[in-house]
Amino acid sequence: MSDEVKYDRHYRDDPAACGAPFAELRAFCDGAEPGSVLDLGCGQGRDALMFARAGHRVVGVDVSAVGIEQMREVGEAEGLDVEGVVSDIRTFEPGARFDVVILDRVLHMLPADARDPVLARAMEAVTPGGHLLVAEGPKGMIPVRASVERVGWSLVIAKANRLIARRPGP
After folding, report:
1. Which of 16, 33, 38, 160 is 20 to 30 Å from 53 by CA-CA measure?
2. From CA 45, how far away is CA 54, in angstroms rounded?
3. Does the structure show a pLDDT above 60 at 4?
4. What is the mean pLDDT of the chain?
């Protein structure tokens, strides 16, 4: 079964399959000035919608057309600035930079050889002075933390399973 089919079925069965946003991401969202957000592997838009409700312009990307449609429907009903893109994050090219880029529990779902390239593209998509928000299991967080530290990003939050890093810049 392809990822698309698996997640489409999962999201159809449960309109809130991923639950509520993590506390660290919610706290960051609550304190952030409105800007642009890219949510890679957004699923049904849990984080994307939270940021859009806080006044951010959001692009959510996911392989599941069902998840994207559910996010779009909520965004439209609430009058939110949220765009949904059906795409595999392994091949998605952002085409712009964003103040915040989110990878919430998606890296571990990718084949091992795809994780570093996806993370590198996500980091490149962050504006100078912007933030990368990652939620991942403790084992998966080790290479994420190493990557952001290697290029001199500041760690705002660095827990075993959550990371918020700030790209150097204004």
Report:
1. 160
2. 14
3. no
4. 93
Question: 3-state SS of 26-71?
Answer: HHHHHHCCCCEEEEECCCCCHHHHHHHHCCCEEEEEECCHHHHHHH
Q: Estimate to the nearest angstrom the gap between the alpha carbon of 36 and the chain centroid.
A: 12
Q: What residues have CB less than 8 Å from 95, skipping those under 6 apart?
A: none
Distances (CA, A) of 161 to 33, 58, 105, 143, 145: 24, 24, 9, 12, 10
Amino acid at site 33? E
H/E run at residue 124: helix 112-124
Our measurement of the distance from residue 127's CA atom to the centroid of its chain's CA atoms, rounded to an integer in Å, reads 15
Instruction: Kindly state the helix (H) or strand (E) to which residue 77 belongs, with its residue range.
Output: helix 65-78
Q: To which H or E segment does residue 139 belong?
A: helix 138-150
Q: From CA 54, how far away is CA 89, in angstroms rounded?
A: 25
Over residues 141-170, the pLDDT tens digits come to 999 999 999 999 999 999 999 999 999 998
Return d(Cα 118, Cα 140) in angstroms, integer.
Answer: 13
